[in-house]
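Design request, tokens follow.
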């Protein structure tokens, strides 16, 4: 078992997650098997109840676990699907220790942070690391916050158990710049390294976050004060794209620092395929304007997986995608038609992409946007809620069901085209009705989606509660809404599309969760192509 632990200090938002994921990419490209983990200090059991305004978008693993976006970054960089084992929170650890105590399993011992909590942390790491050459662990937040000594203590103990040569601590720190003189300052970095040493942890590699390259003098100074060889000071200056970070680390030989320590050898690491994708991302040959219609338009992180999935399609089509936020609140009133029309004309919008969410605000505005895209033949890719919105809009405007709605927004609607399935209606546990994680879909032969996926069977991740009501499948289909993919028994509509339209496709799933730079998602590629 080999562990790489990524910590951070001074400020948050340094890109610890991207650093950890980039190291993962390097090790993967050196042909080692690996897994990645995130240790989170919060008391929640999972990220499902966290507001996207505060915490960014919620991610779902294939095995139905709701986590924060770091796991998504890991998956995109290492091109591998992770499981719930990769997300550990203080809440999970304490819950299991306390449950065990209540079950009398400690037989009267005093239950304490050391060893009971720390042992549980170690058990979780062992569980996740099984059969892997390397496990990369990111510890959330900054060293010396009140919330995480139990994690660092567990990792320190682990170093003793596994042997020093099998654990590598990578510490991510900023080199701050004084804005008036423009000088780079290393004092905060020095303090951070010594604070870590107070916990008996000596950083083996420093990743320095900067806005520019370090001068040789500063690099020397950092090496001296942190008691490290100069080649262990890795520079991570601002990159135009996060996908350049592994390339930058490769050039500085970070992969060999790791393989030397763990396996006593240097290894060939090839990232050429990524290099060309990053070049296409940075040097596009064409441009297309896309509207991203949404509710959380203030915090970019709320839709980051959708934005990044668009970038993956951008890299493979060498087409820059300008994203314009279309706030659906403004599409609600009487002048909405004019508003949407003007927006589309002014910005030269060629496609509308709409990510999912929960709650009933601005729904009427969304229904108008879905209708506008359908009538005016503007490429439309609807994700999750937007399959439901497309269905409501179709039922109202084409099937002559003017009161059609989802019971999520109007419990007493006359035509519940979107509703809970019968078996969901008896579930009373909060969030118990959620459909989470991987689900299969069978695609109809002649559909756009089967052509895009090049298959008649797909598995995508889900995070929602409501479904297209099976009682309305016939009336919708008879009027031209093609249910192009569904569950094996045809009860769950997984994809809908319209045939006399350049691209009107919606899915109940979250395909953005599976998109990577190397494997851009076929639905996003199809959408970008249609918009072009
Ligand atoms: N609110 C809808 C549902 O629960 C859609 C959720 C989503 O878009 N993720 O079914």
């Amino acid at each position: 078992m080999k562990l790489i632990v990524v910590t951070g200090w001074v400020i948050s938002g340094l890109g610890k997650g991207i650093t950890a994921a980039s190291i993962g990419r390097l090790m993967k490209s050196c042909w080692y098997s690996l897994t990645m983990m995130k240790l989170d200090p919060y008391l929640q059991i999972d990220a499902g109840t966290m507001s996207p305004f505060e915490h960014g978008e919620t991610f779902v693993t294939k095995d139905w676990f709701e986590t924060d976006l770091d796991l998504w970054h890991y998956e995109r960089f290492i091109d591998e699907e992770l499981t719930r084992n990769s997300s550990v929170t203080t809440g999970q650890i304490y819950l299991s220790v306390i449950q065990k105590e209540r079950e009398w399993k400690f037989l009267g011992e005093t239950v304490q942070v050391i060893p009971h909590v720390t042992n549980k942390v170690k058990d979780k790491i062992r569980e996740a690391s099984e059969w892997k050459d390397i496990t990369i662990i990111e510890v959330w937040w900054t060293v010396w916050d009140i919330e995480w000594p139990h994690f660092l203590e567990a990792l320190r103990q682990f170093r003793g158990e596994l042997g020093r040569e099998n654990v590598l601590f990578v510490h991510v720190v900023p080199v701050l710049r004084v804005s008036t003189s423009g000088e780079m300052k290393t004092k905060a970095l020095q303090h951070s390294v010594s604070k870590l040493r107070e916990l008996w942890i000596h950083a083996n590699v420093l990743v320095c976050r900067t806005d520019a390259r370090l001068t040789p003098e500063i690099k020397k100074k950092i090496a001296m004060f942190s008691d490290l060889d100069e080649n262990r000071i890795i520079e991570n200056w601002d990159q135009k794209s996060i996908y350049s970070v592994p390339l930058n680390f490769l050039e500085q030989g970070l992969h060999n620092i790791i393989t030397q320590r763990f396996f006593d050898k240097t290894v060939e690491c090839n990232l050429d395929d990524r290099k060309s994708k990053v070049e296409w991302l940075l040097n596009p040959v064409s441009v297309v304007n896309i509207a991203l219609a949404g509710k959380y338009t203030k915090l970019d992180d709320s839709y980051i997986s959708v934005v990044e999935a668009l970038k993956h399609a951008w890299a493979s089509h060498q087409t820059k995608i300008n994203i314009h936020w279309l706030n659906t609140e403004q599409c609600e009133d009487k002048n909405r038609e004019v508003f949407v029309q003007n927006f589309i004309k002014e910005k030269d919008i060629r496609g509308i992409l709409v990510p999912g969410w929960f709650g009933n605000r601005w729904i009427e505005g969304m229904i108008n946007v879905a209708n506008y895209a359908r009538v005016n033949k503007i490429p439309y890719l609807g994700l999750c809620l937007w399959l439901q919105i497309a269905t409501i809009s179709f039922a109202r405007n084409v099937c002559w069901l003017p009161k059609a709605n989802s019971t999520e927004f109007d419990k007493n609607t006359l035509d519940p085209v979107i509703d809970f399935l019968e078996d969901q209606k008896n579930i009373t546990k909060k969030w118990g009705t959620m459909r989470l994680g991987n689900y299969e879909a069978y695609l109809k032969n002649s559909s756009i989606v089967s052509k895009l996926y090049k298959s008649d069977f797909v598995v995508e991740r889900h995070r929602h509660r409501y479904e297209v009501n099976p009682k309305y499948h016939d009336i919708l289909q008879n009027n031209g809404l093609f249910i192009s993919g569904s569950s094996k028994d045809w009860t769950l509509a997984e994809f809908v599309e319209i045939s006399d339209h350049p691209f009107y496709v919606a899915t109940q799933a979250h395909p953005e969760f599976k998109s990577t730079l190397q494997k851009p998602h076929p639905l996003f590629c199809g959408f970008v192509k249609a918009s072009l």
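Comment from the thread starter after seeing the answer: thanks! The chain has two domains: 3-275, 285-531.
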